[in-house]
Amino acid sequence: MPFIPHTEEDVRRMLEVIGVQQIDDLFDEIPPTLRAKAMQVVPEGMSEMEVTALMQARARDDGQPACFIGAGAYDHHIPAAVWQIATRGEFYSAYTPYQAEASQGTLQLLYEYQSMMTALMAMDVSNASLYDGASGLAEAVLMAVRVNRKSKSRRILVPRTLNPAYRKTVHSIVRNQSIELVEVPFDTIAGQIDMAALQAHAGEDFAALVIPQPNFFGVLEDVDVLTDFAHANGMLAIAVVNPLAMAVIKPPGEWGEAGADIACGEGQPLGAPLSSGGPYFGFMCCKQEMVRQMPGRIIGRTVDLEGKPGYALTLQAREQHIRRSKATSNICTNQGLLVTAATIHMALLGGEGLSRVAAACHANTAQLIAQLTAIDGVERVFDGPVFHEGVLRLTAPVADVLRSLAAHNVLGGFDLADDYPELGDALLVCATEMRTAGEIAEYATKLARVMAARTQAKCPVEPKFN
Amino acid sequence: MLIHELSRPGRRAFAQAPKDKPALEGIPAALLRRETAALPEVSEMQAVRHYTRLSQKNFSIDTQFYPLGSCTMKYNPRACNSLAMLPGLLARHPHAPASHSQGFLACMYDLQEMLKDVTGMKSVSLVPAAGAQGEFAGVAMIRAYHDSRGDTQRCEIIVPDAAHGTNPATAVMCGYKVREIPTLDDGDVDVEALKKALGPQTAGIMLTNPSTVGVFERRITEIARLVHEAGGLLYYDGANLNAILGKVRPGDMGFDVIHMNLHKTFSTPHGGGGPGAGPVGVSQRLIPFLPVPMVGFDGHDYFWLTEKDCPQTIGKLSAFAGNAGVLLRAYVYALLLGREGMVRVAEYATLNANYLAKRLADAGFELAYPKRRATHEFIITLKRQAKDLGITAMDFAKRLLDHGYHAPTTYFPLLVPECFLIEPTETEAMDALDGFVEAMTKIQSEAENTPEVVKTAPHSLPVRRLDDVRAARELDLRWNQTS
């Protein structure tokens, strides 16, 4: 029996001790009318060899195309040691460290993680993870409403330059608590938050302003001005950042005069494989004085009864298992194993290694954009500075172009048509440090061919943007 | 020692990062970081050795019996991990087009269909990232359902006092007031109190069955009828699904929405606190509200179902489609078990729990619900030891660690004093259960003869008992060179 160690003799003895005839007798408190019939859809059990063959075939089906898509998930090199250690059974098969003395490995690692994240973000404190970047931002919004006592409103300013998947997720999660998300438009030249539109909200009552860095277009926002604007108007500044970018870009704790109040984002670039969108992890840091309103697990250093240092879950009075309906969040299980990987990843790369990865991504993307915009019918949309993504406008429907490229095993980017129809035929591209010069040149060649074929076929497409 | 204390300026794991650091052209200086982030500077071997050693300070399923009640700490088959990490699956971008995703989408579709079969629900969404997010999705759907009918007076969610803390916390996140109802002495919900609590203000009830006190809620059909008659819906917390897999289905019990903890019942790893996966299943009337994206199949191709296809959806709960890698592990597990293996999970989990309960009772420990059949877990109360000997459940828990056993869940559910919630799972052999009884018996004898040994336990772990009060009072939440 797969994963069940009992011999017939064991079962006989155990039933005898319990005092029943057969195992099914143990289900005698379930009303007979409720007993389930045999499953229909679940197949008969397969051997490990059979399942392996099936999964290998399925994995092969999906191929391994050259990926120029970013849009919130990035293809980075992960040192071999990261997952070899993270999947050691002692990390992989342990649970939430409720018994601190038997979980010092996980607890110390999480304390190190908190230390690394606060250093990277230049913030005071960090929690031990949330589900992902988008749901993490929803938690940051709820936290801001709790923290900002000056604001009587439950309104949050959310720029249209924020990842649309994050805007949707935040909406789904906070809508039932009568929190209102007010959109701030973007400057169509720079691809940044429209400062004039934001200024129009000066003096109004909002609990917080969300500031993405870089924003969804890959463009870097003027974070100092935005943070100071928020604070001057009684709002908290919530930073939503790519943690890899923070190795080279000014971190949230240093934004403006006083720094961002809450910093959160998607931890995936720190050691999590793309893996179809998860598991990743959301990180969250904040100022010291807000720590008691932060959701999620927090680890503290303390001492044992002999005075020896040790680590334990702390400030548990914020959490659902103690505070129940008055908790800061309902979160229980978080993304511990991903944080384990991220901690090892950050330790291996260090500040210098991460900044090299970030710089390589920036250079590759600059190279990619230069080569692609040299093609007829491809131009850059925004002139604001970018980190490792950029928006291009094509003189052809993006969906068609992407389909042609995919047929040639190139995933050419993320189609912005659904989320930003006002941009016309716009495409978001990304080249991480993983994309070689050869792959970038190959993409340019294939895109040139696709664009040329469309021109020759004399099917010009009217640009929708004006 | 912290990794930070091994750090030396200029040391690096050179093979891991790009050789060069190109200039950051085109980025204004004011936007750049001024100083390199103060992360540890260590060699590859130092990092490997440090984290390997840290891992060795953990108890885990792979190294210890881990009977943590309500957490289903069963063996995590290694094949689930290695097959979910096949290069093609690992490298797939979440926005990869359907043309390059048929293999992955087929796995997700199959899993949706299997979970429907297992639970008796009409449709399943895999996206919630953990149990608590599944609960959120479930209660948000209940609210969306009432709202869609213009039935906006329903402002209360009923929760038994024994429920997981996530239940009331979730209800509040969905904008509801929480109304608690008591549990009877025999462990069942107090149906008379339920009747009094029900009314036009009732949006729904959140129940776990088997309940958090480790017994099957025998009047579930009546409860479902009463709640439905009052216009409310029933939410099933799937934390304890392991006990009834293939034996009874939440859909047949009358539940409208359930979440499943795949990191419990479907044996995906707990990872030191996650990631989990908390798919939700619904009855017919809640199908339009399921969170997106889901996977559809037209007989030929697999494709994503998004907001466009599901206009009444409660929406997205994360940036992509949930914890895909966890879902793949659960899928592999389900294939390895098959339909006959699923039923065996419930049977042997229940056999182990009843055997362990009986042996502990025979050894003199007090069962909280002695007249009831244990399900996959059961509760003992150490209130007598606390009163007579001054040895608490916490003391027993810490001393168990010295004996090489992870402690059961302590002090939960809150209504049983000095309790242990014990869940052995189906993957433990009888010998392991016998060893646990022996350790408990030994600790009992120590409690009577050398109580100090128990009160000051653990003695053989990397640290002695930790000062939690100090941890909360003198907050030290990160390394700081000067400290």
Radius of gyration of chain A: 26 Å
| Gyration radius over CA of chain B | 25 Å
Number of strands of chain A: 17
Series of H and E elements of chain B: HHHHEHEHEHEHEHEEEEHEEHHEEHHH
Beta-strand content of chain B = 5-15%
What does it look like?
With 466 residues, chain A is an alpha/beta fold. Chain A folds into two domains: 115 residues, Alpha-Beta Complex (Aspartate Aminotransferase, domain 1); 266 residues, 3-Layer(aba) Sandwich (Aspartate Aminotransferase, domain 2), CATH 3.40.640.10. In chain A, helix 6 crosses helix 7. Chain A is globular and about 80 Å long. With 483 residues, chain B is of the alpha/beta class. Chain B folds into three domains: 53 residues, no CATH class; 258 residues, Aspartate Aminotransferase, domain 2, CATH 3.40.640; 126 residues, Alpha-Beta Complex (Aspartate Aminotransferase, domain 1), CATH 3.90.1150.10. In chain B, 36% of the residues lie in helices and 11% in strands. Chain B is built from 15 helices and 13 strands. The radius of gyration of chain B is 25 Å and the shape is globular. The two termini of chain B are 13 Å apart. The mean pLDDT of chain B is 96. Classes of the chains: A alpha/beta (466), B alpha/beta (483). The interface between A and B is large, with 203 and 203 residues.
Give a short synopsis of this structure.
The complex is a heterodimer of chains A (466) and B (483). Helix content of chain A is 36%, strand content 15%. Chain A contains 13 helices and 17 strands.
Looking at this protein, list some descriptive labels.
heterodimer; A: 466 residues; alpha/beta; Aspartate Aminotransferase, domain 1; Aspartate Aminotransferase, domain 2; 2 domains; 7-stranded mixed sheet; 4-stranded antiparallel sheet; 17 strands; globular; disordered C terminus; B: 483 residues; 3 domains; 15 helices; 13 strands
